[in-house]
Amino acid sequence: MSVRILALVGSLRAGSHNRQLAEAAVKFAPEGASVELFEGLAEIPFYNEDIDVEGSVPAPAAKLREAAQGADGFLLFSPEYNGTIPAVLKNAIDWLSRPYGAGAFGGKPAAVVGTAFGQFGGVWAQDETRKALGIAGATVLEDVKLSIPGSVVRFAETHPADDAEVAAQLTEVIARVHSHAGETAAA
Predict the structure, then answer these.
(1) What gap in Å lies between CA 137 and CA 105, rounded to an integer?
(2) Residue 182: φ, ψ to 5°
């Protein structure tokens, strides 16, 4: 059985180190798993219950929901913006939490990782993301963490995929999500 992990990146910047980290995750997916990097978070309107109407959900939000419904697990990459979760990532979580009681997370495993310029690697934002995911219905893998500090310096000339320490840590994270997703899918 193949396990499909959907990756959501909380930075829209083309050269984002979190995006590069997600690209590395795609590369390091273990056998029997695929990590799919979702494209299009920038096009999704802010969540508004008035526009979340069956049959007329905005196309970008419907595309996100469809991708999430088909996923067995989630891997979210969060930078830290002013000490918290980026709006684009929170908005994706909000769309995927609906319809209430039947959102796309539906007990599926989710992990949050990321990198940030500061000395703690974005842990505040990642903690806030885990909190939102849990409330939205995901099974948050609280013990699966990766916060990489000093991104601007560390990845100035090196892609995260080419950093041996990061590659090993990220591979372990993906393996853990893969394992939990496989258990959930088999249940």
Answers:
(1) 5
(2) -65, -40
Burial of 50 (0-12, 13-18, 19+ CB in 10 A): exposed
CA pair distance 144, 121, nearest whole angstrom: 15
How many Cβ atoms are within 10 Å of 67's Cβ, its own excluded?
18
Spans of the chain below 50 pLDDT: none
Q: Are 120 and 28 in contact (CB under 8 A)?
A: no
Helix axes 87-96, 59-69, angle to 10 degrees: 70
Rounded Cα distance between 138 and 72, Å, is 11
**Contact (Cβ atoms closer than 8 angstroms) between residue 29 and residue 66:** no
Q: Is the dihedral of CA 23, 157, 86, 123 positive or negative?
A: positive
pLDDT of residue 100: 86
Cβ atoms within 10 Å, residue 132: 20
In the chain the beta strands, taken as DSSP E runs, fall at 3-9, 33-37, 73-77, 109-115, 139-148
